[in-house]
Amino acid sequence: MNVPFEFVLFGLTLLGIAVFHKRALSITLSGLAAIILYEAAFTGFPTGTGLRALGEHLAHEWVIVANLLLLLIGFELLASQFERSNVPDHLPRLLPDDWTGGLALLAVVFVLSALLDNIASAVLGGVMARHVYRGKVCVGFLAAIVASANAGGAGSVIGDTTTTIMWLKGISPLTVLPAFVGSAVAFAILAPVAARMQHRHQPILADDLPDAGALQW
What we know:
By secondary structure, the protein is mainly α. 68% of the residues lie in helices and 0% in strands. The protein has 8 helices and no strands.
């Protein structure tokens, strides 16, 4: 099977972000530049080759790019407001103190993703994990948060932008419902492993943060 080299570059970019997550922005931009340069030099763009073709391609796709940018900004605002509400500070008294607390957190992300976009659910899950683990979240648990967000939205037409578009185009919501079978099995197998890994890395807080104030809405 021939894999386009652009996919290899994209995979290397994701791997670089996972390993050097403190430099995520610079690695992301470097990966984007590498893919654009490769396509400019070898494969070309849908509109042709060269800088002019790149400009024409961007002019054709600018609406999608702008929508994605605004969508990501909206998710970031949602996460910021959630964190400012002080709700994450009070999660420790609601979650078990052992490794099952991490499992419960992943389950919350799974359920949220069936009701929200998977990116928004993953961002909120990251905020919750940062609070209950004092900022010491291992890469494996972060990957489990993203996986739980994708799994939870697999069988819901409002759990992902793609399935929402399918629904708006007239596809029945029941069409994607069987996807919950596979995603639930994957969650049942992988989530306990990730929760135990995180518990060994940093146990969950046993109580609320000392300086957590009253809930602010």
